[in-house]
Amino acid sequence: MAKKEQIIEKQEKKTTSKKRSNAIDDITGSSANEKLKATTSKKQDKPSAEKDLSIERKLANLYCLQSMLSEIDKIKTLRGELPLEVQDLEDEVAGLHTRIQNFQLDSKDIETAIGQQKIKISDSHTLIEKYQQQLDNVRNNREFDNLSKEIEYQGLEIELAEKKIKEFTQEVKMITEEIQKSKALLDERQSDLKSKKEELDEIISETKIQEEQLREKAKQIETTIDPRLLMAFKRIRKSARNGLAVVYIQRDACGGCFNKIPPQRQLDIKLRKKIIVCEHCGRIMIDPQLAGVE
Known about the structure:
This protein has helices at 2-44, 49-79, 82-135, 141-222, 227-239, 263-271; strands spanning 246-248, 276-277, 284-286. The radius of gyration is 47 Å and the shape is rod-shaped. The chain contains six helices and three strands, in the order H-H-H-H-H-E-H-E-E. The protein has two domains: 49-79 and 226-294, Helix Hairpins; 80-208, Helix Hairpins, CATH 1.10.287. It is an all-alpha fold. The chain has a three-stranded mixed β-sheet. Helix 2 packs across helix 4 (141-222) and helix 3 packs antiparallel against helix 4 (141-222).
């Protein structure tokens, strides 16, 4: 009986300890859940002003980037068509150099061909002399006829070689004239290129420091903009004629395409709670106050 009572007491102790541990787990679990709920509720209860502020900053950064790039565009317009003219002249000069080199190579090849024809003529003369000496020692009419034909054939070879030499000489003359024309044109184009380059370098030297500073600032601003938004900005800017991707409202109209904007949409733009684009041109729109315009 005593043993049975001891066993029963042990079982009761185990059950009570389990109940205590379960109770502790329930308390800790509930407290953890309460903590999670509290943190999530805190996150949810954060004011939306922070989001609005971040969008406002994005819009302000975009407009600032747009201003920098517009200044760079103005600097480029000062240069006008000079960079393209310089590039065209450089290509033309390179083409003339190649043309002259090709003419010179052709002239060398023709001179080599003329030398080969002269060798043929000298060989034919040697053979004719040889055959004429053999004519003095012929034994029959057959040998005489064969030697006469050989002499005649070598004479025709000499005539053909001389004809080819005349043709080749004429070609060399024409090529020499073309080389002289190309060299004269090359000198003219090189002088034009030199003057255009000097003019372009002068303009670049005046605006180089300013352009470098603007580019550096633009790169710094780009790091603060979301990559997707930056890609969209660059895409809009590329498609726009004047390079404007961000514009402000001017006289109740879009500052890019000058189409009228409804009052409700103007109000949404002024609230700066979301990024709004023009329905007509696709440019990002901001209110004049954000652009610093009264």
